[in-house]
Amino acid sequence: xxxxxxxxxxxxxxxxxxxxxxxxxxxxxxxxxxxxxxxxxxxxxxxxxxxxxxxxxxxxxxxxxxxxxxxxxxxxxxxxxxxxxxxxxxxxxxxxxxxxxxxxxxxxxxxxxxxxxxxxxxxxxxxxxxxxxxxxxxxxxxxxxxxxxxxxxxxxxxxxxxxxxxxxxxxxxxxxxxxxxxxxxxxxxxx
Length: 191
Fold this sequence. Notes:
Elements: E1 2-12, E2 17-27, E3 30-41, H1 43-56, E4 62-68, H2 71-78, H3 81-87, H4 101-111, E5 115-120, H5 128-161, E6 167-170, E7 173-177, E8 184-188
Parallel strand pairs: 1-4, 4-5
Antiparallel strand pairs: 1-2, 2-3, 6-7, 7-8
Helix pairs in contact: 1-4
């Protein structure tokens, strides 16, 4: 059975808000880096998503050492929370529905294929792999924010174009559609 080391992290800007996740899979001396994000999510969902996406990459049963700074994730496995939730019909000890059931169920299915040891690492404490995952997850958040800005600008320009207005000046910036590419561009006015 191959031994794989996995580091994961999730992040969110606002909670909920745009979120990112990242994973680094290490097999022998090879690393595979994964990352992604969602426009509107929570930090806990991103932590779980990172674990799900990392385990999905394993094509055969493996011995896995999984490291995360998420107590939510690690404790669910190491302290028996998942067994209790399942036994209680996916309810917490306070009789509330367990959040993120879709991801927990997918994670349970994936984890059954492997021999996994779940390890808690302290976040932002100098662990190089944890820091890399955190940086990658935050980059995904920034990518999503930039996409949202572009979508908003497209909407604004399209709204003004309906009235025959071809550009919008905001301070020294002019926002308009490039006639050759059809893309929204930003010019700096040199007044």
